[in-house]
Amino acid sequence: MTDDDRELALRAAHAQDAEAIAVLWCHGWLDGHAGHVPDELHRHRQLADFRRRVPPRLATTTVATLAGRLVGFVTVARDEVEQVYVAGPARGTGVADALLAAGERMVAVRFDTAWLAVAVGNTRARRFYARCGWRDVAPLDYPAETGTGGDDPAPGSGTGTVIVPCRRYEKRVR
């Protein structure tokens, strides 16, 4: 293994990453949302659901790798940093900071301000975003996708949703 293999690398997601992203997203979602979202949403957050939700987001997803292994990802939907997840063993290593900064840069190409939603009870995430310069600006009833309206809707379209009490965080990105 070279020194480069041990360093954090960010790159655009590829179709071959879909399974690793789905598994990481499923585990990370359960870890960060258990007890913080309506019970109804949990039946729509099984591994099969994440496998279905990943492919439409690949074009706006950046992945992080360490030693060639996928350890995190960030997905952007227009001006929203929609998803940021890091594998448990990679937390505290700077991966989340790098991914969030990549998401901010993707939003900054078209928008002045980025936003994201955080479940009210997810204090670990809320502390992280505040530390990274994001401001908690308002309560937000976030329409979490369920995909129950047929094919999975485009990210953020709201078809087949469960409302999740969240906080809206914003950051000026350009």
Key attributes of the depicted protein:
174 residues; alpha+beta; Aminopeptidase; 4-stranded antiparallel sheet; 3-stranded antiparallel sheet; 32% strand
- The overall pLDDT, averaged over residues, is 91
CATH class membership: Alpha Beta
What number of domains? 1
Low-confidence spans: 149-158
How would you classify the quaternary structure? single chain
User: What's the architecture, going by CATH?
Assistant: 3-Layer(aba) Sandwich
So what's the overall shape? globular
| Amount of helix | 25-40%
Structural class: alpha+beta
Sheet with the most strands, sense and barrel status = 4 strands, antiparallel
Total strands: the figure is 7
The value of Rg in angstroms is 15 Å
The ordered string of helix (H) and strand (E) elements is HEHHHEEEHEHEE
CATH superfamily: Gcn5-related N-acetyltransferase (GNAT)
What is the topology, as strand order, of the major beta sheet?
A: 1-2-3-4
Separation of termini? 38 Å
The fraction of residues assigned to DSSP E strands is 25-35%
Describe this structure in words.
- The chain is an alpha+beta fold and 174 residues long.
- The protein has a single domain (3-172), classed as 3-Layer(aba) Sandwich (Aminopeptidase), CATH 3.40.630.30.
- It is 31% helix and 32% strand.
- The strands form two sheets. A four-stranded antiparallel sheet has the order 1-2-3-4, sandwiched between helices.
- Helix 2 packs across helix 4.
- It starts with a helix and ends with a strand.
